[in-house]
Amino acid sequence: MSTPKTWLIVGASRGIGLEFVRQIIGHGHRVIATVRNPNSDIDALAKTAPDRVRVLTCDVSREESINGFIEQFVQSGERKIDYAVINAGILKYPNVRHKSLPLTFERFATHLHTNTIGPIIVAQKLLQLANVTIGTIAFMSSDSGSTTRFLAFEDGFAAYSASKAALNQALRHMAEELKRKQSQTAILALHPGEVSTDMSKIDIAWEISGGQITAEESVSAMIDVIQSKSIEHTGTFWTWKNEVCIFLPR
Ligand SMILES: NC(=O)c1ccc[n+]([C@@H]2O[C@H](COP(=O)([O-])OP(=O)(O)OC[C@H]3O[C@@H](n4cnc5c(N)ncnc54)[C@H](OP(=O)(O)O)[C@@H]3O)[C@@H](O)[C@H]2O)c1
């Protein structure tokens, strides 16, 4: 086993986030996992390695909850995060096959708050903490937010896709600004693949090319992808297969 590292997983109650926690513990590393609400799955995992798992609370869509999480983090005395994965996300639109729900102001805003603004603010507040070193921050994006691989057939995904595209642009700015400050924190975007989780239990009108993969497969591959990157990769976007996604035509 490699030297134990500390991972932070934001949005660890189920799906891809919970699987990150499971595998990281299995590799002998430490995890700070955040959930919105008390959760028996994460508690059960924490009991398997009580000295290596810390569970904190964070709802990324609410500023006061993010502030509360930062306060909990400071109180915990943690000084180093080797890898942070900002995984929390929602897909509330689409819905019924061939019949997208109306894209309301509120529904669009909810996607932006959860998938774009919250993740960026969480990262920003962690980066502002004095005496805390962060190696890599990986944001869970999606190929739905890629502008070069625009998925025109994804009816009903406009809010989700726009929120992930906005996340990509915001994290690129974060990477460039950090570079100019000579920061050693690498900022990455990831596409986890088409993963069988609660999020993918939706009634879509198109075939998923290549089918779905399990959270176990996706996370196992993404752990390798994240660990293979360093500061020279900051501001780049990678799939779970370690293929580079180009954000915009150059
Ligand atoms: N599954 C896929 O095929 C796929 C493809 C591309 C990208 N992704 C991205 O991968 C990430 C994880 O997705 P998943 O498939 O694991 O989805 P999931 O099973 O629906 O899990 C979503 C996770 O995000 C958390 N979350 C949602 N809203 C939150 C909020 N306001 N504050 C904090 N946590 C919140 C959920 O917590 P609660 O239990 O509290 O709701 C849950 O832990 C998302 O960012 C998603 O966009 C997934």
From TrEMBL:
GO terms for molecular function: oxidoreductase activity, acting on the CH-OH group of donors, NAD or NADP as acceptor. This is 3-oxoacyl-[acyl-carrier-protein] reductase, putative. Pfam families: adh_short. It comes from the Eukaryota.
